[in-house]
């Protein structure tokens, strides 16, 4: 979500919109927009985020996480057991 907040802030500023203007456009409070942008809300409806992104011409999608890089310890364990 942190990256989404940064993206939404960036898109809003590119379009020279205030948080209040964006909030009004989607029937939200300015505090909600601020919370989304700052990743400070304990919970946020995914539909709210999706609506904002769609309005900016973006699509919210899910992709599999990339596997984490192996650590030295995990490599040692694999080599030790082979």
From TrEMBL:
<dbReference type="GO" id="GO:0003677">
    <property type="term" value="F:DNA binding"/>
</dbReference>
<dbReference type="Pfam" id="PF12844">
    <property type="entry name" value="HTH_19"/>
</dbReference>
<dbReference type="InterPro" id="IPR001387">
    <property type="entry name" value="Cro/C1-type_HTH"/>
</dbReference>
<dbReference type="InterPro" id="IPR010982">
    <property type="entry name" value="Lambda_DNA-bd_dom_sf"/>
</dbReference>
<protein>
    <submittedName>
        <fullName>Helix-turn-helix transcriptional regulator</fullName>
    </submittedName>
</protein>
<feature type="domain" description="HTH cro/C1-type">
    <location>
        <begin position="8"/>
        <end position="63"/>
    </location>
</feature>
